[in-house]
Amino acid sequence: AIPRAIKEGKPIVIGSGHALSKDFLMSGAVPLWFMHAYGPQAIAVMTAPTDRQVKKVMWGELSRRYNSRPIKDEFGELQVCNLPITEEWYVTAFTTKETGGAVGKFQGYHSRAVCVIMSESQAIADEIFDESDSLMTAEISIQIYLGNPLRTTGRYAGTPPTTS
Questions:
Q1: If 0-12 CB within 10 Å is exposed, 13-18 middle and 19+ buried, where does residue 139 land?
Q2: pLDDT by residue (tens digit) across 77-89?
Q3: φ, ψ for residue 119 (rounded to 5)?
Q4: What is the mean predicted confidence (pLDDT) over 103-131?
Q5: pLDDT (0 to 100) of residue 164
Q6: What is the CA radius of gyration of the chain?
Q7: Assessment of whether the complete model's pTM goes beyond 0.90
Q8: Residues 91-110: pLDDT tens digits?
Q9: What does the pLDDT look like over 31-60, one tens digit per residue?
Q10: In 3D, which of 111, 119, 152, 115 has the Cα closest to residue 132?
Q11: Pick from 4, 42, 80, 135: most CB atoms within 10 A?
Q12: If residue 114 lies in a helix (H) or strand (E), which one and from where to where?
């Protein structure tokens, strides 16, 4: 689904119940795969509404995958919510609350290849989705939304952005 979504320029939306492996698969495997597939100029940005979701769940899954990989390459030193390989090749994670209401704070990540993964997307403000869209101007770009289908309105629920 990821190569097809990249080719078609469409996000992947995964909605399911609690504890059904959304973060296990997407937060654990996809950022590392994306770094190998599209590096050395590739970035992956992972976000969620809460610190617990980012650090314990998303980054926890990535850390388990990173630390148990069979081939220990020179792929960077895993830090808390940061896997710097080079200045142009890295994975980062932060909460949407870290934007502090500042318009554009989610923007500014530029690379040849960009992957954005949003977990608990039903609780992410539509403005963050709009800011994430600005990252999709890269040559290779993908957005992946994970969440529980608890809302019937908003970007995660499929409501398109409003235009003025």
A1: exposed
A2: 899 999 999 999 9
A3: -105, 155
A4: 86
A5: 46
A6: 15
A7: no
A8: 999 988 765 556 666 778 88
A9: 989 999 998 999 999 999 999 999 999 999
A10: 115
A11: 42
A12: strand 113-118
Q: 103: which 2 tokens?
A: 């318009």
Measured between alpha carbons, how far is 66 from 1 in angstroms, rounded to an integer? 22
Question: Which residue type is seen at 20?
Answer: L
Q: Report the candidate in 3, 61, 1 with the shortest Cα–Cα distance to residue 32.
A: 61
Do 15 and 22 contact (CB within 8 A), yes or no?
A: no
| One-character DSSP codes across 23-78 | HHHHTTTHHHHHHHHHTTSEEEEEEESSHHIIIIIIHHHHHHHHHT-SS--S----
* 69 token code pair: 């990989």
Cα separations in angstroms, 28 against 48, 85, 134, 150: 14, 17, 24, 24
Distance of CA 142 to the CA centre of its chain: 9
pLDDT given for residue 21 in this prediction? 72
Residue with tokens 């710097």: 84
What is the spatial distance between Cα 89 and Cα 43, in angstroms, rounded to a whole number? 5
